[in-house]
């Protein structure tokens, strides 16, 4: 909006709106270009704030919904060791959700709002969690591929321009690499086990490979927000570059397992120094994104149920905090009266 001649108050100085905004934006972009962090109290363009709220909240929701396909296997883990590792991993994911909701709250949005958006089915989360986990090998494939793809996406986010998000990502990435390894170790055990176990591992790879590649989002040419996010250094590496990197590190890992990638077009390209791979089924991607994946409804039902079941815990914690606050206030009054 051009508002020549109209003066508005910006802090203590009266400056023309147009000039003021562009000057603030110039300084904001200069800070980003110099690789300095933007902190919650700093001025930021509304578009930057909104983009971050969208991205961080979707990320937080993904961590929380991501617990569901794995939670499905806690009671059926094949040994105590596997069960302990799986429980620890799922708890880490809950923690990731919490750091991310906290980071999002620094952008002037309440946690209640974010949680409500998820429970009402208005918020997006990573589509990968709308696929079922039907065998124990899926727990291996999820750790290896889904957490592996998540790491690929999240490592550059440690250098994101928004301070609270980038700092949350540092700890999250450390934990994700443990998740990836425990998943790979499950796959390795199955791949070296009986013929039936190896078949189970291959089947899980067949089902999780393509959805994992979809986790990097649409191709760069179809990704409308990417350029602006790159300028703002919210996003630092493009979808296609990250996907290629993931394919390049994961194919040799599958070879080591003695498993076959479910992609007849996959081959090493000596010229480019990368693997070439087949076209993703974007129609499937679109369908799952629109809510028509195999488990979209089930996930929302389970998340709502879990939220309802946890209500008494939240209420008890609030009542306890209120009691402590009242007791502290009464003591202060008593001391003051003495
Ligand atoms: Fe996570
Ligand atoms: Fe993880």
Architecture overview:
By secondary structure, the chain is mainly alpha-helical. It is built from 13 helices and four strands. The strands form two sheets. It has a two-stranded antiparallel ribbon. A two-stranded antiparallel ribbon has the order 3-4. Strand 3 and strand 4 (274-276) form a beta hairpin. Helix 4 (80-105) packs antiparallel against helix 7 (163-191) and helix 6 (136-154) runs antiparallel to helix 7. The longest helix is centred in the middle third of the chain and has 29 residues, at 163-191. It is globular and about 80 Å long. The structure holds fe (ii) ion (2 copies). One fe (ii) ion binds next to helix 4 and helix 7.
Summary keywords:
single chain; 338 residues; mainly alpha; two-stranded antiparallel sheet; two-stranded antiparallel ribbon; 13 helices; disordered N terminus; binds fe (ii) ion
Helices, strands, pairings?
Blueprint lengths: L6 E4 L2 E4 H17 L12 H20 L1 H5 L8 H26 L5 H9 L16 H19 L8 H29 L3 H20 L11 H6 L7 H19 L9 E3 L4 E3 L5 H11 L3 H14 L1 H27 L1
Antiparallel strand pairs: 1-2, 3-4
The chain binds fe (ii) ion (FE2) (2 copies).
User: Which oligomerization state do the chains in this entry correspond to?
Assistant: single chain
Span of the ends, CA to CA = 61 Å
Bound molecules: fe (ii) ion
Total strand count, please?
4
Average residue-wise pLDDT: 92
**In which order are the strands of the major sheet placed?**
1-2
* Strand-residue proportion: under 5%
Tell me the series of helices and strands, N- to C-terminal: EEHHHHHHHHHHEEHHH
Number of helices: 13
What ranges have pLDDT less than 50 throughout 5 or more consecutive residues?
1-18
Q: Helices and strands: which structural class? A: mainly alpha
Gross morphology is: globular
Report the biggest beta sheet as strand number plus sense, adding barrel if it closes. Answer: 2 strands, antiparallel
> What is the percent of helical residues?
55-70%
Q: What's the gyration radius in Å?
A: 24 Å
